[in-house]
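> example.struct
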């Protein structure tokens, strides 16, 4: 069992480092179906989510270190993305209780699919410098708020929106968008997992095994991602976005 847990953690960390996503889409179902047999039935999903968030703290740190060493992070943008994202997520979570599930699902599907298509056909961003003529602070605030809003509304990780928004609107290369989004993932997972820990909704034993193996996988994924040709990485990420949107529609 420990070997299987380790493999799940490794691949989740690998995905986190490669594409700047938390890897929760792999971990949550794996924990729920394969490792959660001893969880209380009425809290099984919550513990699966809480344990996944706990692990993402460590995998994101590991990915951040790799991207930071390669100078692929725009830290000045994070100062505006994270606080505005927290506000947006609270508003989104409040609104989701007042909307039908179908409406929330269609909003997510349309947005993610649209962004995936736009990114796939978008021209390659070459400049690594932020254009001072454009108000990047306002753009970062908008990206953080809107990504947080949709995250709270649809229950998805903010990185799936932050990365395409940074690429399409701030015009930074895909590697920088991924590296920057990893910091947002860290703060989001840290904030959320504290709440789960306080309510005893994290399986520490499984979480530690997953975390150790994910820390091994994340820098490997990051190294491969950083070495990927920009155009190829962007198109692969775009396809993942489109598939994610379609998969939610078919659920």
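> example.seq
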């Amino acid at each position: 069992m420990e070997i299987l847990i380790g493999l799940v953690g490794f691949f989740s960390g690998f995905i986190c480092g490669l594409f700047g996503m938390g890897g929760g889409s792999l971990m949550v179902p794996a924990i729920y179906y394969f490792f959660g047999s001893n969880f209380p039935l009425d809290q099984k999903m919550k513990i699966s989510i809480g344990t996944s968030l706990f692990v993402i703290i460590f995998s994101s740190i590991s990915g951040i270190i790799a991207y930071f060493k390669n100078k692929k992070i725009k830290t000045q943008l994070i100062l505006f993305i994270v606080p505005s994202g927290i506000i947006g997520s609270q508003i989104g979570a409040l609104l989701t209780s007042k909307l039908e599930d179908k409406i929330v699902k269609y909003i997510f599907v349309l947005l993610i699919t649209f962004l995936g298509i736009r990114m796939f056909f978008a021209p390659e961003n070459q400049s690594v410098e932020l254009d001072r003529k454009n108000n990047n602070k306002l753009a970062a605030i908008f990206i953080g708020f809107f990504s947080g809003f949709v995250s709270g509304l649809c229950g998805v990780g903010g990185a799936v929106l932050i990365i395409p928004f940074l690429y399409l609107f701030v015009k930074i290369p895909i590697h920088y968008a991924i590296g920057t989004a990893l910091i947002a993932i860290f703060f989001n997972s840290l904030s959320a997992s504290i709440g789960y820990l306080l309510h005893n909704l994290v399986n520490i034993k499984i979480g530690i095994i997953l975390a150790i193996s994910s820390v091994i996988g994340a820098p490997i994924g990051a190294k491969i991602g950083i070495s990927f040709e920009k155009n190829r990485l962007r198109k692969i990420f775009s396809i993942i976005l489109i598939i994610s949107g379609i998969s939610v529609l078919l659920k």
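> remarks
Residues 2-250 form one domain.
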